[in-house]
């Protein structure tokens, strides 16, 4: 049996959240992030006994938005299951309108530019 393709979005969502929390220490109580666009390329089905891991890297930083590139692969990285490109927007949690990316997060995201996912 294989994993339903809709679950791939969940895997990538959890990886993005972990990346923003662990790498950027993003405080979502004041300024959060929302997905503005997502592209997912399915490469190979994931079977129930497959061990998978997601990799995330930042590929562009704008004023209020940034792009993340993600790869879902086997733990030994020998098999790629899917690739994902996501445009994230920094938003005020008060009104959900775009706001500039906080300087401390921008610096971390920019340091990650051009590193492969």
UniProtKB/TrEMBL annotation:
SUPFAM superfamilies: Thioesterase/thiol ester dehydrase-isomerase (SSF54637). GO terms for molecular function: fatty acyl-CoA hydrolase activity. Residues 2-79 form the Thioesterase domain. Pfam families: 4HBT (PF03061). It comes from the Bacteria. Gene3D superfamilies: Hotdog Thioesterase. This is Acyl-CoA thioesterase. It comes from Algoriphagus formosus.
